[in-house]
Every structure is written in structure tokens, then in C-alpha cells.
């Protein structure tokens, strides 16, 4: 397939070099070849795209994405998940280790890598388990997992309650120069909970998930980073307490980053008044004061990374009472729309900051060759219509599951095309 393109008249944004201007981008042999090339330098047979009115930038990189395969193919297969990623502008996926069996051996790493290679869609980077079988009892074979190709270690969406194990894991990850991606939650405080603990929860009479469960885990993990020097990424902070703790830790120059799932940047716990199981997510939807703190953290750089929080669940699993239904919502295809609608349009972030949090920063954390339009870099990019409004139609999405509370919601900002290694692997309407 010809993977040489000239994309003209787009507004190109690349926070890695401070780029934000209109130009013509040349892609040659699957790599970026620079902006504003002369006509005489164009190779024969090049494909042209007039991207007037569109924004172009490095493809998004998602952290901790949950797919079902292997073990829960009724929720999502690798193929449907990677299709969904491209439709959302994600060209690289760091896939959760929470499969069945979990990714805690070299064989399980090779299985998902080979399946993803055959699919030839978005790039997949597996995360390896911190603990054997994700039980939180003893360390997995971290060295073997690193040799097999994992880019980071994580038991998420399960938290690591065992503090001694967490300390040793940070030390081992430091030895192999890999980050540990943690879901901060003290399970003894939140186990059995359904929603954020506050007045709304009391009125509804649903089991609580107090903010303190996250705050205490965040404080512990940051202190362990200070003690060990290990690299930590907090995948999913959602409380004002966690934001304050991370902001304070910045001043101590600790080797950590903080992320947020896009739902926790705008979805209020009051949505649970519908008793819709699609609103049951973890971290839970919080109150307005916590969301305001998270927005401030996004604006001032305390929160470095925005992730989708994609966690597909089959219809049958979600069609249960709230206590029994699993956590999770699909969000790869709605993340951009949520970012534009709730962060960019209100002025919380500009486009350059959004690309940094969706692309550059997660790529740097994982140490993968992505997140930049610089010449010689792999041509992984997304083209976006920033003004296009659209209505979420869950059954029409590429994902196999369609458990989302956003059904029927109007969002702004649409992915028009996604390129991987110079190949256009998604085009809106195809």
C-alpha cells in the first residue's frame, strides 16, 4: 500500500516543538518528512488530501485501555477494540493486563502482540502484571515481562493494597526503567461501593465509594516514590485531595505523572439518579467540587495525561442491578468529543495542551516513538474537524460493546481520519 501523502491546508499542532500553524505536511515511506516541502521534492504517485478547516496532530496514545480478549471476547475483541481506537483518533494503545488469563507471562505478551500485528490497525503496547495473576500477593516475573515487550507494569483497574508489594514493585520497575501504572484506591474503604459518597449517595441509598479511599492511596504511593525513586503514573485521579497531593509532590520533584479518565473531568455523580448501570464507573463520577479541582489540575499541569478509561461490558452484564453490574463505560470513540466539548470550548485547555495530554505526554511516559510530527518520526497522526457537532449513537460505534451513559448526547469535535505508519487506517464514513 502506498503510504506517501501530502496533506495540505490543515492547522498542524505539535506540542513537542511548539508548532501551531497552517501548512502542508509530507509523509514519505511511512514517516513524517517535514512541513512546507516544495512541489519539486514530491515523490511520484503521492496521494493528496486537502484538509482545509481541519486540525492535524500526532495520534493519541491511550493508557490502561481494557479489551476483553483473551477471556472476555463477549465484551471486546482485540480487533473491535483497535477499530474503535482508530475511530477515536488513538493510534497507540497501552493495553491493560486485566485479561483472562492476565498478562503475567511471556506467552501472554506474545499472544496479544501477534493478534494485534495480524489486525494491522492501531499499534498495541501490552502492560504486564505487577503481581502474579493480579492477586496482589507476590511479584510477577517483571524481568521476563520486560524482555517480552511490555512497556509498563500495572495491575489496574485493580489497586495494589499490599504496601510492601507496592514498594518492591517500584524498586523492580526502576531497575528495568519501566513505569508502574497504578489505580489509587484503598479497597477496604470502597469495597462493595457503587458511587461517590456524598449527599446524593445518601439520598439514593447506594453503597458509597468515599473520596478518602483514593486520597489515602495517592498519598501512600507518592510517599513510596519518594522513598524508592521508582517511576509512578497515577492512572485515574478524581478527587480534590489527590489533586492537592500531586500538586504538592511536584515541588519535591518526584518521578511521577498523574492522569485522569475523561469522564471524571465532567460527569457528575448526580447522573446516578437515573440508576443507569452505564453510569457505574471506577473512579466514580464525583461531585462538582471535585470536578472543579480536577479541571484546575488539568489547567495548571498538575494532571499530565488524559486517558479514555475505556472499559467495555456486554449488554447482558450491564443489564443488572447496580450492586451486581460491573464498572465501566466505552469511551475510545467519545474521548475527543468530550475533551473538545468540556475542556477546549470552555477554555480549560487549548489545542496544544490537549495534544500534549492525549499524545505527547503518554508517549514520553511509555518511551514509545510517538507523540510528535518531527521529521523521521513514524507517521501516526489524526485529522480532526474541530467544529463538527455529532450525537453519540452507541450501537453504531466500532466497539463491540456500547455501554455508555453518553447515548444521545451532542458532542463537538470529530475524528475525520487516523493514520498509522503513513497508512490511512480510518476514514470517517468508510
Explain the overall architecture.
The protein has 430 residues and is α/β, with parallel strands linked by helices. The protein contains twelve helices and 18 strands. It has helices at residues 78-87, 106-119, 142-148, 163-175, 187-190, 199-204, 211-228, 240-250, 288-300, 315-318, 335-344, 351-366; strands at residues 5-14, 19-28, 31-35, 47-50, 55-58, 60-65, 90-95, 123-128, 152-153, 180-182, 195-196, 208-209, 232-234, 256-261, 305-307, 381-391, 410-420, 423-427. The strands form four sheets. Strands 1, 2, 3, 4, 5, 16, 17 and 18 form an eight-stranded mixed β-sheet that branches. A four-stranded parallel β-sheet has the order 6-7-8-9. It is globular. The chain starts with a strand and ends with a strand.
Q: What are the SSEs and their pairings?
A:
Blueprint: E1 5-14, E2 19-28, E3 31-35, E4 47-50, E5 55-58, E6 60-65, H1 78-87, E7 90-95, H2 106-119, E8 123-128, H3 142-148, E9 152-153, H4 163-175, E10 180-182, H5 187-190, E11 195-196, H6 199-204, E12 208-209, H7 211-228, E13 232-234, H8 240-250, E14 256-261, H9 288-300, E15 305-307, H10 315-318, H11 335-344, H12 351-366, E16 381-391, E17 410-420, E18 423-427
Parallel strand pairs: 1-4, 1-5, 6-7, 7-8, 8-9, 10-13, 11-12, 13-14, 14-15
Antiparallel strand pairs: 1-2, 2-3, 5-16, 16-17, 17-18
Helix pairs in contact: 2-3, 4-7, 7-8, 8-9
